[in-house]
Amino acid sequence: MELKFPIYLDNNATTPMDPRVLETMLPYFVEKFGNAASRNHSFGWVAEEAVDYAREQVAKLINADPKEIIFTSGATEANNLAIKGVFEMYASKGNHIITCTTEHKAVLDTCKHVEKMGASVTYLDVQPDGLIDLEQLEKAITPRTILITIMYGNNEIGVVQPIREIAAIAKKHGVLFFTDGTQAVGKIPVDVMADGIDLMSFSGHKMYGPKGVGVLYVRRKNPRVKVTAQMDGGGHERGMRSGTLNVPGIVGLGKACELCRLEMDSEAVRLSAMRDRLEAALTQIDESYVNGNRQHRLPHVANISFKYVEGEGLLMGFNKQIALSSGSACTSASLEPSYVLKSLGLGDDLAHSSLRFGLGRFTTDAEIDYTTKAITETVLKLREMSPLWEMFKEGIDLDKIEWAHH
Amino acid sequence: MAYSEKVIDHYSNPKNVGTLDKASKNVGTGLVGAPECGDVMRLQIEVDEETGIIKDAKFKTFGCGSAIASSSLATEWLKGKTIDEAVAIDNMDIVEELNLPPVKIHCSVLAEDAIKSAINDYRVKNGLPELVEEKAH
Ligand SMILES: Cc1ncc(COP(=O)(O)O)c(C=O)c1O
Ligand code: FES
Prior knowledge:
The complex is a heterodimer. Chain A contains 13 helices and 14 strands. Chain A has helices at 19-25, 42-62, 75-89, 105-116, 134-140, 163-172, 192-195, 247-282, 311-316, 339-343, 348-352, 365-384, 387-393, and strands at residues 7-8, 69-72, 96-100, 120-124, 145-149, 176-180, 199-203, 214-218, 288-290, 301-306, 322-323, 325-326, 354-358, 404-405. The model of chain A has no long low-confidence stretch (mean pLDDT 95). By secondary structure, chain B is of the alpha+beta class. A 3-stranded antiparallel β-sheet of chain B has the order 1-2-3. In chain B, a hairpin with a 6-residue loop joins strand 2 (39-47) and strand 3 (54-62). The longest helix of chain B is centred in the last third of the chain and has 21 residues, at 105-125. The structure holds pyridoxal-5'-phosphate (PLP) and FE2/S2 (inorganic) cluster. The site of pyridoxal-5'-phosphate (PLP) has 12 residues of chain A, from helix 3.
């Protein structure tokens, strides 16, 4: 197959929309534009019917009841609603929340926010492979603990946390369990019943659906979970999230969920084979390391450090042809290297030298071959330019050097 | 962020990548790191004893494209200059020449520091006092 440039390998940031999703959405902009809350005419009924259908499609993907699906503007909003909503609703029971250091900013910053409102938050460290320590989790629980929030799959390294074990611990102690499922839902089987999840967020644009629409799953039975609304108004979504529903977005999300449900299994096999091939080829390069646990991992994600070359410099070698993301400081304005990689205990040198690969539904074998070749060439070229590589080759211990700082 | 043509050009065809004999009395070596972003630059000059003119300059850089371009440009500028002229190279000259955006200014600072550090190494080797840093970053 002929290659089309640029090659997109940043599917953890966002996925392209599946054309089948777009097709489903189109009638809901001009023709079927009704407000799903208009009860008095057919425009409203048509919209409501479409939303109901989408709610079923979404629920089916995660084995939930349609009534447990709260539509939001995305995972960021759903994370805010879950954490702030539980914190407020269960204030009489306690104020302690447990999370971990590799969570997405939408969880971490929300936790920081509720801390200012009087919450006490424990940030669990992760092990060098990115997994949390279940014993540590259980030890952190106090009589004041109301919520455990641990993500399903990590957006930078793809590591999948032991969700069922976490849920069991939560249940044992009568604590609610919320998981940010943004990277996992639609990619691997997620079953809120079998997994024992009480609340879960996910987002349309990470699963070949539209941007600006997402979900908070809120369990209704065993236990019945309630969250305090963070958006007040017309009382939509069973009072938990007011605001006129984004009908085309919701219709698209429903379709995206259906496609994932039908195609996820074969897609996961195809993507993990491609990912493994990419990884095998790139770890042929000297001093390259895969970050994160390699068993408990999303099928389409790889994170690799190429020691002695800097991530942004590396990306520049092929950023006209390949869209990729780096854990390097220099790609962000903050200059801080990835906090997720640092949480794994990676030194600055390795954190700065990492690339994140997010394969997707439309990734081809030819693209993987091209990428492997381009990265290998650029790493070798930049190492010829790297003073650190030269010192490493001379056997100098880089940790012992005193840099002349400015 | 889009890179300027000049940065891309230096990155794709870097000038004067390499290593000079750091034990030689005529060679000054500067090895500097930017702790905030983890980049490292090594810049070397070789000075002609007779004329006091920099006759060769080499670099190796671990860093972003702007850092690579800044050091490549610095080595080009250094060749043919006297030590005094070299000291006068300011990081803002590099910023201007390469069109670096504000977040990339520190990459050019790294290059200026590497120049100063290489000159000092040369001066110390030849029994001259170190230059005092007159500019605070
Ligand atoms: C794990 C995780 N949570 C939350 C989000 C935010 O999702 P959204 O863009 O839908 O707000 C992302 C996307 O960057 C993510 O990867
Ligand atoms: S040297 Fe750090 S961003 Fe360029």
